[in-house]
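Folded chain entry —
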Amino acid sequence: METSFFKENNLSEAAKLIQAGELVAFPTETVYGLGADALNEEAVKKVYAAKGRPSDNPLIVHIARREELESLVAEIPAIAEPLIKKFWPGPLTLIFKAKPGFFSTSVTAGLESVAIRMPDNSLTLKLIQLAERPLVGPSANTSGRPSPTSAEHVYHDLEGKIAGIIDGGATGIGLESTVLDLTSPENPLILRPGAITQQDLKEVLGKDVTYDHHLIGKEEAPKAPGMKYTHYAPEEPVILVKGTDYNLWRKAITHYLEQGETIGILANEEIISKVKSEVEDVFSLGLKANVNEASHSLYAGLRFFEKTKVTLILAEACEINDNTRAYMNRLEKSAGGKYF
């Protein structure tokens, strides 16, 4: 299969591919999504095949208008309304009780819930409107790898496996959406951290919102992507180094060089300025203490080293708080929780 590129001037062609049951990757404010008609079970199955994605990992459904929501879910709890008004379109996925029998189990992973979001990207909103279909949209990458934040990343992973890619340039946020479970409205749970923080949600709802920390069992289907399986991992092993203490970084570099590793450094400018004489391949996450810049660059950085001779990546970790939780969630998963 030839994978074509699309821009704004030929979005109608991409929409026709969606209607025909084909896969088209689209840009969002978070990462690129792999689009398919959410109401076409065979098309949705192609998403799992193209990505190599486990079938018990549910998909997020993307819509372009608030009015579409009523037809897709069993009920819209009152708690959802202020969240929708404040954060849609934007990087917030809401989980509702699913309308029985409406979506195939390929979308819901057999759960009685469905995840919905409205992306903040004009190209993708227009695509959904032209296709006249809600779209599933997991990250447009091979399952388990760093998510794509450019059309080039998508092409690298899925060339020949999907019909098209809408090139919207680099994504803005760079990390996947916050996922909030509203199936028990009295106890909303954050299933995946993102750019919309716990404090952001609390300010809108006027009540505390907690994280779901329970471990997903081997036979249990996760309610949201990113909860169960290996995610965000590049080809090279990642080891985390906490903080900016140069002595600790130098100790880590010396340790792995003595083991015969070729090291890459993924860190802020201050750390890189201190270690670049000892390590050839480095990727900057931006200025020190700028977590938004680091989040925006994280996946591109993890992918960067695949074009080098690096055999091990040392990546900068930081203290976890409300603002850094999403960044550290993705980084720790990419490293399998391994620290120096």
